[in-house]
Design goal:
By secondary structure, the chain is mainly beta. The protein contains one helix and ten strands. Helices cover about 10% and strands about 55% of the residues. Strand 7 and strand 8 form a beta hairpin.
């Protein structure tokens, strides 16, 4: 069990919980008419962005992780864990992965790789798909 993961990749941190399928609402108003109207558009999922961080033994390994993440773009939907909870009701399509920060660090302790000298921070664009 991983605390945070997207597909086969494990992370020290994911910066927010995933967005799931939910009722989509809009408000409408007309000039000269008091109040607003609330309209339900249906149950839909919207793409969302999430930022991941993981340590790596070397800078070369950190760049390698990013290129491995890119292989998920356009592939099959993958499961996700956030804060130790498996998101069992949804799978997630990876629409994009962008590097935010890939750099050498002086020395890291306690990450996924024990003693680390680099880190990879990426922003993911994910599309949730309800499975139930």
């Amino acid at each position: 069990m991983s605390v945070n993961s997207i597909g086969p990749f494990h992370f020290v941190r994911l910066d927010r919980p995933p967005e799931l399928v939910k009722q989509t609402l809009i408000t409408r108003s007309r000039p000269g008419v008091n109040g607003v109207m609330l309209q339900r558009l249906g149950v839909r999922a919207m793409p969302f962005e999430i930022t991941s961080m993981v340590d790596a033994p070397t800078v070369a390994d950190a760049y390698s992780l990013y290129w491995q993440y890119r292989l998920l773009v356009g592939a099959s939907a993958v499961p996700m864990w956030w804060a130790g909870l498996a998101i069992q009701s949804h799978l997630f399509f990876v629409m994009n992965v962008s590097p935010v920060d890939i750099r050498r660090i002086l020395r890291g302790h306690g990450g996924l790789n024990g003693l680390s000298y680099a880190r990879t921070v990426c922003t993911w664009t994910l599309q949730p798909i309800a499975t139930t």
